[in-house]
Design brief:
It is globular and about 30 Å long. The chain starts with 13 loop residues before the first helix and ends with a strand. The N terminus is likely disordered. The longest helix has 6 residues. Helix content is about 10%, strand content about 40%. The strands form 3 sheets. Strands 5-6-7 form a 3-stranded antiparallel sheet, with no helix packed on it. It has a two-stranded antiparallel sheet with strand order 1-4. The chain is built from 2 helices and 7 strands, in the order ααβββββββ. By secondary structure, the protein is mainly beta. A hairpin with a 2-residue loop joins strand 6 and strand 7.
Amino acid sequence: MLGLGGAVVAMAPAIALASAGEAIADAGLTTYPLAPGYRVNVRSGPGTNCSIVDVLPEGGYVTIRCQGPGTWVSGPYGTTDLGDCTGNGRFISDAT
């Protein structure tokens, strides 16, 4: 589900960035690992034209809250225009 090669829409680990309220809200959501060997750009929106606000290190995890259309991106998990919202206006590509 997640993967990425470089200039992909991305997000930071939900556990490390979650406030107390988000940690409670995340209790029912699934956490996914990033593609092995890839760093992932965290963006302020679902497209590659949105600013990079963070970078996830190799071996990171994300919690996906919802998905929506963004920029077409190719990564280790295919090519898609889906952006995964991880909360607080932070997005990664579903190809990552």
